[in-house]
Write a structure and sequence with these properties.
alpha/beta; 6-stranded mixed sheet; Purple Acid Phosphatase, chain A, domain 2; single chain
Length: 391
């Protein structure tokens, strides 16, 4: 056994033991499985990563440092993010994607093209740090599309349009600093949309104990008071008071199973926001829709964090549903012009873009940030302005 293997195994065991002592058995088990997979894959690959030179050892060390720091979560300064979080995320993502090459190497064969998953991870690192603004035109044509399926955005029509910007899943943490989210909000306001909609998951474990972070990041939205609305995501229930205070402080109206009606240049609009829930979605959503019926002649926009709940919405109740949650699938081939993602391959959950069921439409935003898997890989974050026309 090589020195690299011994040191990696010792570092792994040390991190897990510290996690057991500081965060308990459940968290230590969770961390042990994820970090254990990384360690098992990285050890047979190390002799085949000569191109990285000594940086391979540095990258390996950064992964263990990243997870040790994760046991005492807080927002850390940019030197730590640049020297530890970014290389750790790049190397761990590339290594986890390289598991087939590790199997080949473990059986004594030379793993060809071993740098391919790391090149993919490097693309993900770039996409995690930079997002291009875009314009997407969406026509609500009223066509009955049948069962749930992807639906084309359609060509723009003449006439008045409703411009909206959706910010979802920013996940303030290593890759989404307070300053970065603040700049995103500033750019959103500068585009002068009719409305800005926030569809949840604002924080991470690093930021949900720092009550100053989200209010400071969302402050630019004060300039659009009365035209910014939000719903809650699953991670918002980990620090609900921080999220609610930040939204209220910045003039954002939080809709938790409630609706508001506003007038727009395109006619009356009802905005209905659902709380995030894992169970009993169908009866809960039906009750909310019955309590807030859609006004005659009004367009209804529904804020629903999890697109998996779209099919639980009573038919005909969602002219346009705005969701996030999936991070666009997070791993996939969207960057190469293909809609395939990890989510679409292994689940029936709508992952990104426009979907339809009957006359209802669902737009799944690819997310402003990311969380969970170390990086986005082949699925860029989204900062789009939706220009909506409806019949």
């Amino acid at each position: 056994m090589s020195l690299f293997s011994i040191l990696s195994c010792c570092a792994y065991l040390l991190v897990v033991l510290i996690a057991l002592r500081t965060r308990g058995r459940l968290f230590a088990t969770f961390l042990g499985v994820g970090l254990g997979l990384f360690t098992l894959i990285s050890v047979p690959l190390r002799p085949h990563l000569q191109l990285f030179g000594g940086f391979a050892d540095y990258f390996q060390l950064s992964v263990y440092l990243h997870f040790v720091a994760y046991l005492w979560p807080k927002l850390r300064p940019w030197p730590w993010r640049v020297l530890v979080n970014f290389p750790a995320s790049f190397f761990s993502a590339g290594t986890l994607l390289a598991w087939p090459w590790a199997l080949v190497a473990a059986f004594g064969f030379a793993p060809h093209y071993v740098y391919a998953p790391y090149a993919f991870a490097l693309l993900g690192l770039i996409q995690a740090l930079y997002t291009r603004e875009s314009l997407r035109e969406l026509v609500l044509d009223g066509t009955d599309a049948g069962g749930l399926r992807r639906y084309p955005l359609g060509r723009s029509k003449a006439g008045p349009a409703l411009d909206i910007i959706q910010i979802t899943d920013p996940h303030i943490g290593p890759f989404m600093s307070i300053k970065r989210l603040r700049r995103i909000c500033e750019r959103a306001v500068a585009r002068k949309p009719d409305f800005i909609f926030l569809t949840g998951d604002f924080l991470t474990v690093e930021s949900n104990r720092e009550p100053h972070a989200l209010p400071a990041a969302l402050e630019p939205l004060l300039q659009m008071r009365g035209r910014v609305f939000a719903c809650l995501g699953n991670h918002d229930h980990e620090a609900p008071h921080i999220v609610q205070h930040a939204l209220e402080q910045n003039g954002v109206q939080l809709l938790v199973d409630e609706a508001v009606e506003v007038e727009t240049a395109t006619g009356p609009l009802q905005i209905l926001g659902f709380n995030h829930r894992y169970r009993d979605r169908k009866p809960a959503m039906a009750e909310v829709c019955a309590r807030f019926p859609k006004p005659a002649g009004a367009l209804r926009i529904v804020l629903l964090h999890d697109p998996g709940a779209f099919t639980r919405l009573p038919e005909g109740e969602g002219d346009l549903v705005l969701s996030g949650h999936t991070h666009g699938g997070q791993i996939g081939l969207v960057s190469f012009g293909l809609p395939i993602t990890f989510v679409s391959l292994f689940t029936s959950l709508p992952d990104h873009g426009l979907w339809a069921r009957g006359k209802d439409r669902l737009y799944v935003h690819r997310g402003t940030g990311h969380y969970g898997f170390p990086l986005r890989v082949g699925v860029p974050a989204e900062q789009s302005l939706l220009r909506i026309r409806h019949s």
